[in-house]
Amino acid sequence: MINENWESEFKTRLLEHYDEMKWLYTELYNDPHAFDYFCEMLHQYYAERSDLLKEWDEARIAVPNWYQGNEMLGMLMYVKQFAGNLKGVKEHLDYIQECGVNYLHLMPLLESPAGRSDGGYAVSNFRKVQPELGTMEDLSDLATECHKKGMSVCLDFVMNHTSEDHEWAKRARAGEKEYQDRYFFFDNWNIPNEFEKTVPQVFPTTAPGNFSWCEEAHKVVMTTFYPYQWDLNYNNPTVFNDMTANMLNLCNHGVDIVRLDAVPYIWKKLGTPCRNLPEVHTLVRLMRMAAEVVCPGTLLLGEVVMEPSKVVPYFGSVEKPECHMLYNVTTMASTWHTVATRDVRLLKHQLGTVFALPKQYTFLNYLRCHDDIGWGLDYDFLGQFGTNEVQHKKFLNDYFTGKLWESNGRGELYNDDPTLGDARLCGTTASLCGIEAAVYEKNDWKLNMSLELDEMLHAFLFTQSGIPVLYSGDEIGQLNDYSYHDDPLKWDDSRYLHRGDLNWDHVAMRNDMNTRQGRLFHALRKLEKIRAAHPVFESDADAWVVETYNDHVLGIGRYYDNEKLIALFNFSEDEQVAWINEDEDYIDLMTGLQRDAKGVNLAGHSFAWLLHSYREKEYNTEAPTPIEKKTKSVDKSSTKAMPEEKKTEVKAEAKPAEKKAEVKAETKPAEKKAEVKAETKPAEKKTEVKAEAKPVEKKTEVKAEAKPAEKMAEVKAETKPVEKKAAVKPAAKKAQPAKKTTRKPAAKKTRKTTKKATTKKATTK
Q: In the prediction, which pLDDT does 35 show?
């Protein structure tokens, strides 16, 4: 139904999608009345959307790929752990901007019951912020300030389930059939037992089964994750309509990116695994169109933590897109596998699969997040090297929990299942890299080695196509927080190990290069600025795996806009040689000096960004000003050197993001649209730009900043680590014989690792 009295802009957008929406909706529900209500609901939220946000939408419509640039950098944080509440985050936006961040992901902050919140993923009210964190008005105010600074705001939308304390659940417990129909209630265990035959368990040790007994209703209810999280029944159109309304309400409070939590689980059907069913894609497509009608500046980020063959379909197709972005969890897990084994063959295989995907597929890349690390690696590929899955998972967990003599990692296990030989891993990036062990042991040599590993891993993160995301605290090398062991509401969930409060005393040390905080902070800022300065880091770049003929050294090639990058990463603590033979002249972006790309020597845990330009001789390692970004030459078509006389003819019109009145992800929607310029990139402080202005700065000068022994006493460990025996400097390892790896089918991805706490599930039958 289309009302002729609706605004022309809304009707135009609705008509663009109306036929497809009606067809898909009818296919699922065959309920014309529910569909008419759905359209009315979309108009309601369009009408309620502020003029400020509508201007923001218009500017992003002009530049639809605003989120795919090489200047994008995300940061993931818990509001309480970062600054106490939403107002505190707002007060610290200058620091976030100083970090180079323009994509702020706030972890779940809607109302959830204490002790049964699952870190905020058991939502009891989708229209209310957790009181100690603030109000919905505080969320709107924070989003407005972020927009003024060119930052986008991401928030989780928990769509698979509600808390058992949600109003719908309360009324269902009281016996109201209308609300029981919003969940999966059964009079006895017959049908649930049939489901259990085909539905995998998410937490077989801490929350076995997929159903729980509800004593108040005297019925069985589906609870895929935890007993206090009741699965929503999306077979009911009322559930879909109301949950879409909840999502649009968050968008109208300034949320720019909606993270769809546990999206593969939302459709349930007897006789199936209740994962990745076709109806899930129909629902996501409908939500994508709903957002494009009401708030077209909004992006959908899908949380699909599975193997690539099941992840990629959530992008949809070019003609019928679903999610704008997805997590690159397979690369994350493969990266830590490579840290432990020093063997890059699996990572090469996995990256080859990712690089072969269409360039419009945007991944969020990360080293660590709020969740655990699952070891769902491609064991079919690893099997050709004699790797046994159960034994290898044990090796990885032993390595990163510091049980092996050659390991400096300090982490803890999550959901350990000795029967299956399966467990997942928790820990901050710094602690897993060995920084915690080095600080605890006051070992300068080990500290320097661990910092180099941390820096190299971030360089690898920034080399991948897509949006790199930092976990709050990683920019200063924050360590594990063992205090959760003393909190009865947390001690059963080891993921709180890496969810500690940000140490603002350590943040204050970020400009002291004699501290590990200062060294790491400025190393990452330099990487971020170099990445933003060179179009070869754009997501549209061609990317490929470079054969280094050394199983310790990963090679990545990139080409875009007449720039070619050869990136090399040494995962061994010993010096290695990348046996490459590139003919062009290269500059080392970290030093500004010329460097041959032939038989490249790499110190332990070091990396090299080697750049060749086909059109210019000057290399800039600083992020350009907005004017420079608008006027620099762009030529996507040529892979050859550009003749000198042709350079002046190149116009800066190759990138659509630099067209249309130079509108680029507007910073201040309140201003006139004609004045909305390329503000997606966060403004960098002038003092920082000056500090990085010397392109000839040598990497050896950065490494010389390792903390001297006399400074060690000033650097306090943020942790109460369990006493471990002093690590012995590992013996030098022999380089493995160079060999080429035969390409195999797409790598399998890590299994779903969902963010849940650890309450036992009732299994009374």
A: 97
Query: Of 71, 98, 261, 454, which is the active-site residue?
Result: 261
Confirm if 153 and 142 have CB atoms less than 8 A apart.
yes
Q: Do domains 169-230 and 328-533 have the same CATH topology?
A: no
**Residue entry with tokens 């059907």:** 269
Is residue 561 flagged as an active site residue?
no
Q: Are 86 and 139 in contact (CB under 8 A)?
A: yes
- Alpha-carbon distance 679 to 676, whole Å? 8
| pLDDT surpasses 90 at 381 | yes
pLDDT in the model for residue 206: 81
Amino acid at 152: S
Catalytic, 303? Answer yes
CATH 3.90.400.10 is held by the domain 169-230:
yes
CATH number of 328-533: 3.20.20.80
Strand partners, 326: 302, 363
pLDDT of 677 strictly over 70: no
Residue corresponding to tokens 């935890």? 226
Count of H-run helices and E-run strands, the chain: 25, 25
Own/partner contacts of 413-416, CB < 8 Å, gap of 24 or more, are: 413/494, 414/372, 414/493, 414/494, 414/495, 415/203, 415/205, 415/206, 415/372, 415/758, 416/205
| 372 and 424 Cβ atoms separated by less than 8 Å | yes
Q: Which two tokens stand for residue 172?
A: 């269902």
DSSP secondary structure string for all residues of 134-199:
--HHHHHHHHHHHHHTT-EEEEEEE-SEEETTSHHHHHHHTT-HHHHTTB-EESSSHHHHHHHTTS
Residue 2 · residue 11 · CB < 8 Å? yes
- Residue pLDDT, tens place only, 701-734: 333 343 433 333 343 344 433 333 333 333 333 3
For range 474-494, the mean pLDDT: 94
Residue range 10-28: average pLDDT? Answer: 97
Q: Say how far apart CA 553 and CA 571 lie, in whole Å.
A: 6
Q: Beta 563-570 vs 607-613: how paired, if at all? A: antiparallel
Task: Write down the catalytic residue from 71, 231, 256, 303.
Answer: 303
Q: Which of 202, 225, 200, 198 shows the shortest CA–CA distance to 212?
A: 225
Contact 254, 153 (CB under 8 A): yes
- Under CATH, which number does the domain 1-152+241-259+273-298 receive? 3.20.20.80
Cα gap 696→595, rounded to integer Å: 12
Longest CA span, the chain = 82
Residue 712: the pLDDT is 38
In this prediction, residue 3 carries a pLDDT of 86
Phi, psi at 155, each rounded to 5°: -140, 145
| Confidence band of 615 (pLDDT split at 50, 70, 90) | confident
Average per-residue pLDDT in the chain? 84
Q: Which CATH number fits domain 536-613: 2.30.30.100, 3.40.1180.10, 2.40.10.10, 2.60.40.1180?
A: 2.60.40.1180
Helix (H) or strand (E) segment spanning residue 231: strand 229-231
Judge if pTM exceeds 0.85: no
- Domain locations along the chain: 1-152+241-259+273-298, 169-230, 328-533, 536-613
**Run of H or E residues at 247:** helix 237-251
Structure confidence at residue 616 (pLDDT) = 58
- Are the CB atoms for 595 and 610 separated by under 8 Å? yes
In terms of C-beta distances under 8 Å and separation of at least 24 residues, what long-range contacts does 142-147 make, across chains too? 142/86, 142/87, 142/89, 142/90, 142/254, 143/253, 143/254, 143/255, 143/256, 144/52, 144/254, 145/90, 145/93, 146/93, 146/104, 146/254, 147/56, 147/254, 147/666, 147/667, 147/668, 147/669
